[in-house]
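We emphasize that the prediction below concerns an isolated chain of 102 residues; any contacts that depend on oligomerization or on bound cofactors are therefore not represented. The input was used exactly as deposited, without trimming of termini.
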Amino acid sequence: MRYDWDKGVFHSLGILDGVAESSMMIIDEAKQWAAIDVTLGEDNYDVAVLPLTATDSSPVYLSAKLQGLENYQTINTRLWKGNNLSFYVEWNGRDVFFDYKE
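Result of the prediction step, given as a token string:
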């Protein structure tokens, strides 16, 4: 869900199939994209990126974009820098930082 401050109403962003829990949601400065920290199951963390302009949109899961980082502990959002999403992955006890551009 997203809230339209101008109209004072909530709008559906889409359905996050298989998500057991969602927590932090951050929106980019242009209000075009949302990044949501999600749990897909026990110890299976991910970040879902959704466009805010489409009514029925499918999320992009950032874990599907990672290559070479198997068996990571967690993945979380940090912040939007323009239209780049800064996020991090905890892997082998270390935080590895990435930028995702939609």
